[in-house]
Amino acid sequence: MKKKRFYKNTERNQRWTEPETGREIDFADKYNEPEGTGIYSDKFDYLRPKPKKKKQRKIKLKTLGKALAAVAIGFLVFSVGYTGMDVYMQRNAMPSASDAQQEDGGTMNEVALNLKSKYVESISLDGGVMLESVISDAAENSYNSITFDLKRSEGSVGYKSRLAAVDTYGAVAFPAGNLKASVEMLKSNDILAVGRVYCYLDNLVPAQDHSSAVLDNNSIHYTDGRDNTYLNPDSQTAYKYIKDIILEAYEMGVTVFVLDGVDLPQDISGQYNDGFDYLASKLYADLGTEIKLLRAVNVSISSTVVYDEDGDVIEEESVSDDIERKLSEDIGSNAVYFIKTNADLSAAKQGLDDAAISSYILFE
């Protein structure tokens, strides 16, 4: 058997003419070289699979394209959603009390309110079940306020008043059960409470207080063609009665008041200081400018259909046609349309919004 030969390294590197430098090679040196320096090479590198650069580039481009598409879609959805919400807010915006303070030091009475209001009976403001129904209806139909009577056209008062004069006249009828709590509840639901005050037309007080009434030349109560009587705009007693009702409601949280019935009948108008401007200026002087007084502009709208003898339609006018014919877009910042309609309220409201009528109260 041939003997195995073992070789020694004692004479290794003796023939090199250059002097030895560096250090002895260690087994783990190949793992210590910085990655990417190109110093280390593995003899089996050629066996390892190499990624194809073109394919990687395609993958990167595809990933980048997906990312850009996602960003574009997100931006489009955001833009459409934002625009839609902006339109909705403009159409259904709540008249905010914060708008009352303007840069020039303006106050609540100078604000132009964007009222989209529905008239409700005062008794609905009970602070409970009936009011919850009113709030639900307002939210469902995009009303930003509700309007109710503080003083009605026949003279009755629509809330539980503690005023001595109201008690003396026995004027309270079908009142709001809890006006203060109701106003707070409406406010918490972003709904503005608007109080309507029918000022001079009054069939209750003049009968009990002769000094507050409009009288004829014989010192007898003046009556119009419908036997209505009126409070005297020049009477301090009549003025104080109206002012105290507004002040009491203001103390319960109401800040916006619609003044109706501020003009006397044509045959006596001008003989007294009637009219919205005169009354509003006195009320602002006495009560301050943290309230908003609006003149009621009464109008009726309807949809009509005319049939012939055979039952065929020969003429038809939609509620939108009637709105276009009777209403103007701009009636001033101190007025509001008080609209009576026999048409469907939803159709009437849609017609008003489409016609850009900025301030209205719908009465069914």
Could you characterize what this model shows?
The chain is α/β, with parallel strands linked by helices and 364 residues long. The chain has 10 helices and 11 strands. It has helices at residues 29-32, 53-92, 129-140, 164-169, 179-188, 205-208, 236-251, 276-287, 319-326, 345-354; strands spanning 116-119, 145-151, 157-159, 172-176, 192-198, 256-260, 292-301, 304-307, 313-317, 335-341, 360-363. The strands form 3 sheets. It has a 7-stranded parallel β-barrel, surrounded by 4 helices. Strands 3-4 form a two-stranded parallel ribbon. The radius of gyration is 41 Å and the shape is elongated. It starts with 28 loop residues before the first helix and ends with a strand.
Summed up, what is this model?
The chain is α/β, with parallel strands linked by helices. Helix content is 34%, strand content 17%. It is elongated.
Unreliably modeled segments = 86-94, 96-105
Write down the overall geometry. elongated
N-to-C order of helices and strands: HHEHEEHEHEHHEHEEEHEHE
Strand content: 15-25%
Order of strands in the sheet with most strands: 1-2-5-6-7-10-11
SS elements, strand count? 11
Mean pLDDT across the residues is: 82
**Which range best describes the helical content: under 10%, 10-25%, 25-40%, 40-55%, 55-70% or over 70%?**
25-40%
Distance between the termini: 125 Å
Q: Largest sheet, described in full?
A: 7 strands, parallel, barrel
Secondary-structure-derived class: alpha/beta
Rg: 41 Å
Count the DSSP helices.
10
